[in-house]
Amino acid sequence: MLGVGDNNNGADIQMANVVAVEGQQVANGKDVVVQVDNTAGAAGGVNKNVVETQGEVVVQAEGVEFATLATLDKVYIQQKPNIGEAIAQQLGCCCVEQRNTYYVVHPESFQMVLEIKEDSDPFQRCCCKPGHAVDLEVTDLRTGQRAMTAKKPCKCLGCCACCDICRAEMIAYGPDGEVFSQSKVPLMGGWGFTPTIEVMDRDAEVHSVIKGPTFFTGGCIESCKNFQFRMETKEGKETKGHIVKLRPGKMEEIRASKQMGRDVAQIGAQMGAQITQMFTDADTFEVNFPEGLTNELKMGLIADAILIDYMFYEHGASVNAASQSINVCDMYCCGCLFHCVISNDNNNSSD
To answer: pTM for the complete prediction?
Structure first.
């Protein structure tokens, strides 16, 4: 059933070429308000309101407002924990790496708006992780349509970035299959102790640079601090854009603060996040978009956050019961990633 929302002011609502097909709406024109009722004839249907004002679409479902990336200045990315993989790793089974799944979360409603699924070869996941080749399929959970595809070629991660095979990269494609964003580690990883990624447009022209925390990037210290990857222009001017690897439980704290208080369930969620971080490689990121960034480049920055996860935070759990070792921290130098590990013989080692 297609109906027009109430107009309390008595003003006319201009309708122009409005089409409703299975809950999806297309509207041309301005100040158009359309209400679609999907409850009739659908088991467990949900009322949805779609508002299109000057080309900007907002979808409302069950009282929760979802906005397109054009209306957002930041999002959260939450990786789905794989419990089976974590148990197998703690038992010493190495060839158990599973495909990753991520969710892009709305910063206000904390509802999932995009799903990112990895497609990769099982043999490469077993032998080459986290440098294995990855295809990422990004789906808009509101419409079920593909929003983006991203590809990470197989590279030798964690070693000196002196040649192309050691320089991690991510290529983002639109629904039409055209490249709109590319990101790649520069030669020698930026020549120093700061992780560096060059962000390019569809013509492979560098327009900005992502720089991570100096020297330390991960390990057990992930449990007590955030790691910020700031975004700069190619001239070196810092922007408001940055990607933050959040410490466990930080997103739960943010959610609690927005809901004006903490309850037992939220405290439990924070504790659960801490445990998950210690024994799995599931991570949470906050992506803050620079001002004036297009929808395409915002999607590209989301892909960059996933690239950062593979580069620095997919090397396994910080605590491994099978080897009786703890990865205290990771150190970065010229593309190389060194793991500072304490083993059961109390000898420090790095690899």
So the answer is: 0.74
